[in-house]
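**User:**
Make up any protein.

**Assistant:**
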Amino acid sequence: MTTLKVHNIETAPEESKQLLEKSQKAYGMIPGLHGVLAGAPGALEAYQTLHELFVNSSFNNEELTVVWQTINVEHECHYCVPAHTGIAKMMKVDDAITEALRNETSLANPKLEALRTMTLTIVRNRGHVTPENLTTFYAAGYGERQLLEIILGLSQKTISNYVNHIANTPVDEGFQKFAWTKENEVS
């Protein structure tokens, strides 16, 4: 298992310092992921930009959580699953949704389940979807915009999930109580 340096404002490359200050201001701390990404200023800036774009997409808090956590769980991200569990709580997302996502079980809400299913299809098939997949997704009340926004969310999560795998990023203290590993969850 590898580890990468988790930077703070003092140790980060000069081009990353302002970006880390932005994280500090937004979250009251510098998330470990941001500290790792600071090692490559462009990577941190890309992640922050994708995050802002996705948060401001057409998805509501539940839908954002469905896309994020579906990808995090599928990618088996030890850092992002607990982080987004805590974030979902802060966003007032029903715990039943979070638990279903963590456990890879169907969601009770058919529209959210259609979003989860399409997200999984895109991730598992590397963007290859069938006309039937699209028909089902659109019938649930989503459109082309949301289809493209899933890919936006996937772009953000690919950066974070892959970096966390390589860096073995320590889970931030506030999210440690939501620790997760695939083998410990009920399937």
Observations:
- The CA atoms of residues 89 and 187 lie 22 Å apart.
- The first helix runs from residue 14 to 27.
